Amino acid sequence: MFGGIGLYCGARLFGIVFKGDVYMRADDGMRRSLARSGAGAFRPYRGRIVNSYWALPGALLGDKRRLRAWARRAIAASEEAARKTPGRPLARRVPRKLTLRPRRPPR
Question: I need a surface site. Which of 6, 27, 83, 88 has the fewest CB within 10 A?
Answer without folding.
Answer: 83
